[in-house]
Fold this sequence. Notes:
Blueprint: H1 3-49, E1 53-54, E2 68-72, H2 76-85, E3 89-91, E4 97-102, E5 105-110, E6 114-119, H3 132-142, E7 147-154, E8 160-169, E9 172-184, E10 187-194, E11 198-203, H4 211-225, E12 231-241, E13 249-259, E14 262-267, E15 273-275
Parallel strand pairs: 1-12
Antiparallel strand pairs: 2-11, 2-13, 3-4, 4-5, 5-6, 6-10, 7-8, 8-9, 9-10, 12-13, 13-14, 14-15
Helix pairs in contact: 1-4
Amino acid sequence: MEWSKLKNIILLLLVSVNAFLLILVGVQESRAARYEEDTRQAAVRVLEQSGITFGPERVPQEAGLSPLTVTRDRESEAIVAQTLLGDVSREGENDVRHRYSSVQGTAEFSMNGTFSVRFQPGAWAKEHERSYEDASQSCLERIDFQGTLISSESGERPGQTVLTYYQNWEGTPLFSCQVTLLWQDDTLLRMEGQRLSGTITSSSEEETLSAATVLVRFLAGVTEGGFVCSRIDEMNAGYLIVSGTTRPVELTPVWRITTDSGAYYVDAITGELSPTED
């Protein structure tokens, strides 16, 4: 047989094998996707049989989050203080708590990431027609805090408005870090809470639970803990700080499940359930 014909036959065989392998992979992926969807639907049915309806349109896809280790950046505290208060000076030599002051107010930062900024009247004001949410978002963005609004409510005194945000860490919710802004009419009086800034130094490859398994663990935790709910409204993946007083900081992936009677966290690795504190 001529070499050119033999070469064509070999190439044809190789193309046929590659096509068969592609078809095989496609079939396997299709079966896996169908199995995952069946598992999600089964989890919803288990909830419904226990008297809990699942409000979202469908169970979320897997979050793909893994435990993280973050080294805090305390050098950014002076930048935050200067951004909010102008020309500041540091007071004292306490390494645990840093305090800065200026004619516009004071700022304190603790080693665990908590902070408090108090403004002199009129130091930070918004245009009267501007919304509190828009003005608060702008203020948070100035200190590189990407936040998602949790609540907006009236304060203890007439004319006060309180807005609370949680931080988004590289596009993912960081539920542990929440910041509250207190407005008196058009003037910002106080900003306080917890923020995280720093560098990811390591990550773990621990296997996380599927979203369907998390729902089953949620049901088990609610039953064992004696909690009562009849509807799940939201299910969002994010992080919680599990060692906030140390350096570096350990972040663990969780699912925040919001129900008609409150919100809960389910650890995406252990499946442990705990009510939120907010």
